[in-house]
Amino acid sequence: MTPLDSRNYTVGWICALPVEMAAATAMLDEEHGKPTQQDSHDKYTYTLGKIGQHNVVIACLPDGVVGTTSAAALGVQMRSSFRCIRFGLMIGVGGGVPSRLHDIRLGDVVVSKPRGTSSGVIQYDYGKAVENGQLIMDGSLNKPPKTLLTAMSSLEADHLRRGNGISGHISKMLYKHPHMQQHFKHQGPENDILYAADYKHATGPHCVQCDPKQQIIRAPRISLNPAIFYGTIGSGNQVMKDGITRDKLASEKDILCFEMEAAGLMDHFPCLVIRGICDYADSHKNKRWQEYAAATAAAYAKELLCTIPASYDDDEDLWMIDGLRARSNTGSSIGSGSSLSRRPTIALENINMDALPSSVFELSSRLYAKEDISLASLIPDRRYPNQDALAEIQLEEWKDYSVSIDRNFSDFVKSNAKSNSSFKRALSKIFLSPTVKEVGGDVQILAEESRVYMMRQPREIFKQLSGRQSVRDWLTDYYVNSDEDIYFIVGYRTLVNAQFVATDLKVNQKARQSRSHPGPRENYRYETTGERIYAICFRRVSITSLRNGTPGSMLDSTNYWKTFTEDRGMDMDTEEEILSADLEEEDDLEEEAFGITTGGPDDSELELVV
């Protein structure tokens, strides 16, 4: 079968060794060959195919190149070349940690499973040493996408009822690829030998000369079908091949398996890590079980993918946004979607403006440098939030406002003639030059990071500001001399080092004749450096005049103050006016503006207001 367009591939599968790549490709239900086109900067080789309902792109690290950094580079490049990847899988072999609690054998499978604050993968050689010599791990890695964790739980429950199908998948693979039968089959329980942790390997590539008295005798298993273990995987830049160090780290961090790539991948390519056990991470390492272990890991990955439904369909009113689902205004809101790094669901629909959720971010008309717009600033004209603003207070992060970060942000907007194109037009207005009239084709938004800044208690901070004489004078001046509304910035969304890539541009004749501008069917790429604001959350400021019967106690409140109003035809010697300023309860969105709304305290669901 010929390769599909790169945008049709939604699963990224990364291997470190050729034997792992061989097992992965042999598990494909369909083989699509190699990509017909590839970015000139992308030096990796990809194999394309399909498992279940998912189109899969498989890549292997260059021969002889291993470690966390190398895996990270491959993950970043794969996501750059295949923009619609929903989630990733890191599949291969690892060194098991056998214990009384976990009777891990060669050929078994270990799957990374988050516990508490742990992502299921820890980098055991990265941290800081303390006085007793213990290594304290710094920071934490991203957890796998919820889509994978949900599927993993479902598969685990299914295996408890019916057993796993790993041996069956391997049998089918060997029947389909008879050349693999010698090395990719089970190597026999007699060749699965575990030595005492403190017993060092003798000499030679095998354990022929090792003392048999140092072997750990374990009860034979009833079946040769591999067992599956879920827990923490230890990742580092050097091979673990010492039994004592293995057991020490395993007991401290509850590690079931050691490997060399996953820690570098998790923050750049959030994924599930699956390892077939090929040795016991001690000095008795050999490669006899590598092929079979690679096959068991690949077989588990296939079972997992077959439990996950495809995230898209062929409905003409459906857009695909890098794993996000977005319908036109004839559809309804879709629920929370899957993500690589907490990606939300975006639904395009006509929404009752009186029933909006509490956080509305209005798409700006351009990208603003973050330093040009401040949280807690007062804005006289929301069209120009960087002009004539009053910023009187410096907020403290975490205390006064929260920041959520989505790393390696990549949204792909695919539309057709029957789709509602409001969202695409709004994004085009932000990114494209005035010479561009319209974008007729597909759109991609890329960024190193997408960030959401949100004030925690905007009304309290506004009341504090209202107690400052400079703020009162500013509010009074606009109240007296202008009929326009005033706004308070309570949040904004940003992109770091963003790119906008569009096709099928419709430009005016002068632009079309310019060499510096692409033609109507060419790609257009706009890049910006630094952190740029693309959407802002406003609250309207309500100013009320109180003249008669105002209790004096009100003036003790910071958001009430006296003012003279001779500009309104009053005698300042005889008439005073008391002004009250407060924020309206709901975030404000102009009637014809494009806005992104968030539902829930963790911003886990988004809607686009059109």
TrEMBL record:
Location of the Nucleoside phosphorylase domain: 11-299
One of the record's GO molecular function terms:
catalytic activity
Fetch the Gene3D superfamilies from UniProt: Nucleoside phosphorylase domain
InterPro entries in alphabetical order? NLR-like (IPR053137), Nucleoside_phosphorylase_d (IPR000845), Nucleoside_phosphorylase_sf (IPR035994)
The name of this protein is Nucleoside phosphorylase domain-containing protein
Q: Name one Pfam family in it.
A: PNP_UDP_1
Source organism of this protein record: Arthrobotrys oligospora (strain ATCC 24927 / CBS 115.81 / DSM 1491)
Q: Which GO terms describe its biological process?
A: nucleoside metabolic process
Q: Which domain of life is it from?
A: Eukaryota
